[in-house]
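Training component of the fellowship. As part of building independent skills, the fellow (R.M.) carried out the full modelling exercise for a liganded target. The chosen ligand was zinc ion. The inputs are recorded below so that the supervisory panel can assess the work.
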Amino acid sequence: MANTIKIPGALDPHVHLRGMDWSHKGTFAGETAAALAGGYWAVLDMPNTPPETTSPQTLATKRAGLAAQAVCDWGVYFGGSQADNTAAYTPEVVSRVCGLKLYNNATTGALLIGDQATRARHYAAWPRTSRIAVHAESETVADILELVRAHRVPTHFCHISTAEEIRHLRAAKEAGLPVTVGVTPHHLFLTEADVAVLGALGRMKPELKTLADQDALWDAIASGVVDVVESDHAPHTLAEKASDRPPAGVPGLETTLPLLCTAVHDMRLTVERMIELVALRPQQIFGVRPGPETYTVIEMTPFTIERANLRTGCGWSPFEGMSVMGKVREVWVRGRRVFDGERVLAGPGSGQSLYGGAA
Ligand code: DOR
Ligand code: ZN
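Fellow's submitted model of the complex:
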């Protein structure tokens, strides 16, 4: 195939697959199929879908659902809660999750930790051999850095969106703290100006920011401060988005790789850097390695992002109408072709658990 890019095991370490009590927004089967169609080998699922993944029981429920339905490989986060659930941080739980997620600013779902003393209890209890991923915006970034300094638990800062946050994190890296940085495609390709057109379809947490903030994210990709591009795939139905109180969140699993390939085509990004951002660094940070027979083939051919071509259960994208470069043609996992550019070929439950074996 002429003009293709081969990605060795694309891993999206930040998705909200829904299922369970939020199956009307998306299902494990449907959203993992969207992951394969988007070119991903594996995804790591966030804990804020009810029943929240904050106890051994709800962890087992989610893992059983994924084991039965997932068509791509998967891991799940445990969630820290305001009501202290640190007693659940046993070796059994830690070995079955990709890490702990702490929500430190208000967003979709019930998992907000609003005070530093509670955050500190979670940091003291979670083992340094694993990792913590944080939702931290503006001043909260400094609050979390204080905990990283004190407890030395490797910490991934999700969806960083401002120039100021980047400054803090660059300094933290220079000081040798074990921190990594993720940015999302919506913050890289949309700004607050797009909210006027998109309305609720352009609302997520963190919100879209200024062009200067967006430039700072691209600079931070070039300079190596950013480690990962993560979709923060967070489907909500069009009816919910049209309501008086639309929930925050946008889908992204099927648009992230085409958008980044477009940046490669436009020479804003090298292909080597793109592969680091979507495969090699996420694999290193989250401690997983695909074999050589797990890879994605993307053809550098133009297309327009359209609702009709999306597989996500929510059926829309904030990037609709955009002309992009880069169609996912094939996804191979352990030597089996699981997506052929049109159809998902993997059956329900063929996706494997990356942490802790079969559920
Ligand atoms: O916009 C968001 N939506 N941000 C989050 O942190 C959560 C997510 C969701 O679950 O919908
Ligand atoms: Zn998220």
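The panel noted the following from the submitted structure. The first helix runs from residue 28 to 37. Residues 152 and 347 are 41 Å apart (CA to CA).
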